[in-house]
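pasting for the record
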Amino acid sequence: MTTESALKQYLIQCQQQVNAALELQLPADSIQPQQLHRAMRYATLNGGKRIRPMLVYAAGAALGVEPEQLDGPACAVELIHAYSLIHDDLPAMDDDDLRRGRPTCHKAFDEATAILAGDALQTLAFKVLCKDEVSPFAPHIRLEMLETLAHASGSRGMAGGQALDLAAVGRQIDLAQLENMHIHKTGALIHASVKLGCLAATKAEPAQTRQLEHYANCIGLAFQVQDDILDVEGDTATLGKTQGKDQANGKPTYPSLIGLKGAKELAQNLRQDALASLSELDERADPLRWLADYIVNRDV
C-alpha cells in the first residue's frame, strides 16, 4: 500500500469513528430546545477534515493506545473546534457567510442561536472529558485532560489568539508577532489534541511526550502557514469558505510578510522539523508522519 492510499484510508477511518462518536454525544434535535440542538448538530456534523481528532487518535496510537479509548478526547477537541468556528464566523469577528461549503451557522439560523450553539458546544466538550464512559481514564488523568483543553481554549490559547488576530487587522506586525498570534489561535488546539493522545497513554515515557509535543508545535504552525497560502492560491469552491478574505480584510499573513515562496519554504521546513521529532518512534507513529505531509500539501 502506498503512503497516499494509507493516508486516505486512515483519514476515512478516523472521520467515520469520530463522526459516530459525535453523533452519540450531541443532543438529538428532537429534544428541547430543538432550534439550539439543530444548530449544534449543523455546525458539528457538516463535514470538515477532522484533523484535530485524527491527531488525538494518531498520538495515542503512537504510544500504544487503542482508538476506542480515545473517542472521548477526540470528540472534545472537535466540539471545541466547532464552537470556535461558529464564533469566528460571526459578524463581530470574521463576518463570514460560508463554512465548509455551506452557510455559516448564523446565516443558516440566526446570530443569537449561533452564539448559544457555540457556548453549548464548548461546555459539552468538557462534559465529555469528565463523563465519557468508554475511555477508562483515572480521575487524575481526566483532570489533566480538562486542564489541557481549558488552557488551549482560553485567553492563553485559542481565544487569546483570536483577540490578537482582531487587533492586528489593518496594522503592520512583524514575523515574531504573527507567529505568536498563530501559536495561540491555531496551534494551541492542535498541540492540545496531541497532548490528549499522550495523556491517554499512561505508561508513556517523558521523552516520548516531549517529542510528540514538539511535533505538535511544528504542525500547528505549519497548518496556519498552509491556510495562509490557500487564502492566496485556493478557490472558494474547493476551500468551502471565501477565498482571499484575509487579504481583503487587511489581515497580516505569512505570504504578506515573507512572500508566497517564503511561506511555502517555511511550511516545508516546519514539516521536516515535525518529522525529525518522530525519528525515535516506530511504525505506530506513521499516521503522525502521514498527517504532517497532508497538512502542508492539502488544498482545502
